[in-house]
């Protein structure tokens, strides 16, 4: 299996955690399979793009910031409680797309929108192609991405000690979806190196 | 002889200056107690353990004394090595993490005192009686006084001997028959060797985790579940436990079903566990870390997880279908509890609903979260077991090198007795820290969540330095050697935020902690450092800085941290620059980056 690596940049990104603390809405600190695959499929009108990603770069990048806003009820026009939303600025990430016939024709630089608060200008991401590469060395390590269990073969992942969670998977051509058992970052796996955490520390 | 043999009392003569092997005991013969425990005192050895030492006058003659002999060997085996180091024997315990803690040899020297001890033994006392009467000797006298081996106390050795003895006595798989015991010293020694090679035990390290992301005070009940899990394991398997922390245990057992029982206890409390275990003959279980023993297995044990869940998913744990709605389902049961009526609707699974269903025992925390503008500090201590074994190994190796520069690295292996010895000081450290918090902030302002986790109501964020001061004092009195390290096994997170701030965000920061000391001003930055620099940080906090300069820096950073950094280095505004220079002078040598300095400035500028 071949993969294409993209550099992802965004001025402001809000990938909301499902957990909400009263009026506080936290932000995911990774790029889950569901988010990036969904955004790419939506961009190209496809259903077969499979991608994963993670945030990268030093402390200059991916800084947490907070926005307070008050969503308005569309019918009554009344603002409810103000919400505090955590979002990331100066976002830098890496995205790996499993290569197939549809993906091969991607241009080297394109734009996608991902995450929430798009009406407030969030979520515009630039993807720049870095390289196309073969899967590479398979090694034991700690997973750096979130992948549904039923996609682990696509990415050549053998699970050793899983950290489980659930990712949302839309049902095609509907507005519905289900939560799929997935393995999360921190799982011990045997997998291609690019999916693993660097063991610098 | 009517009472049973108390294994913890077997090393009677080590409480005195007499030889352990009875070679100078003759003048006390007439005071010899007539109890089964005394039989254990006499018969718990066979051949001398070291060359040139005189053998004991008696050896095991029945199952009780043979098992005591093996248990004694097992617990000694974890702290005593076969190498003979040259150097003076020391009858004072040397704590690797606190080398100056004990200086006095407290053993009984006078005949009168020794006779008193023998008379005490004649009353057939319990271990608790012995601790009450002679605990001061047990905790200061090393189990082995030979050079380089005085690192664990007699107390630790006795506790572990008791655990192993009762484990052997009650084991269904480790069998021994009376007829196997042939009353000849060589035969007994061979029998012990054979059992050590043939009896297999499991050694497992289990760490407990929860999936919940606590939001409300009631959700903090998840920590009660964690505490209950540990408590239940301690109650059911006390004799099998070698190490126990607020979320982790090290345990030995002879039957895999024990691990399954632990898994069941965890799951009943809504937790999952990561377990590393190994099964080996007794003689091969030497390391205190199962993952370092060849043939170990490691797994994450979750409850049943569905492969697909139709919405809604539980909003707290996100691991199960949400079958309940908060607060409406709760109000169906407790109509009178009007407090929750106005709370937002949340979809919860049965487990998370049952956690939130129960009123929180953390009454103070509940009050603080309901009030407006209350600042709290979350304190969480964490003991990193992997780092603990590494650090103890390094300290032990350094200690052995003092008496033998040619020491082999395998001689410094960290055995269970050393871990157990450490655990006692660590527990005492936590207890004293808690008492210190009560003293400094008052009982009304301190909520104890776990024995290593607290929430404090504070008046101003600068109070964080009171906590750091207390921490520094306690580290000095318990673990001064750890303060010399850049990376030690004790991790402390101190997070300051508004009482209404969702706890799961604080918890996420605690779980991601990388440095030994993390001081968070939630949403505004963090200081990451080591205990090595704690004193300098406290000194830096005492220096006077121009308040307006710190205020400006904090305010500018709200708009842009980069702009604040420019201001920090700007020499044109001389009044402010002096304060910034002082911060640089005090904090840059500690390796602090601008984010750390800025956070520090926000703390002191409060």
Helical amount of chain B: 40-55%
Strand content of chain A: 35-45%
Average pLDDT, all residues of chain B: 88
Oligomer: heterodimer
Output the structural class of chain B.
alpha+beta
Shape of chain B: globular
Please provide the count of β strands of chain B.
14
Q: Work out the largest interface and the residue count of each chain.
A: A-B, 29 and 33 residues
* Major sheet attributes of chain A: 7 strands, mixed
Helix and strand run of chain A = EEHEEEEEEEEEEE
Largest sheet of chain B: 6 strands, mixed
The number of distinct helices of chain A, counting runs of at least 4 residues, comes to: 1
- Spans of chain A with pLDDT under 50 lasting ≥5 residues? none
> How many distinct helices of chain B?
20
Structural class by helix and strand composition of chain A: mainly beta
Strand order in the largest sheet of chain B: 10-11-9-12-13-14
- E-strand count of chain A: 13
Q: Could you tell me the strand content of chain B as a percent range? A: 5-15%
Question: Architecture of chain A, according to CATH?
Answer: 2-Layer Sandwich
Rg of chain B, nearest Å: 28 Å
**CATH T-level topology of chain A:** Alpha-Beta Plaits
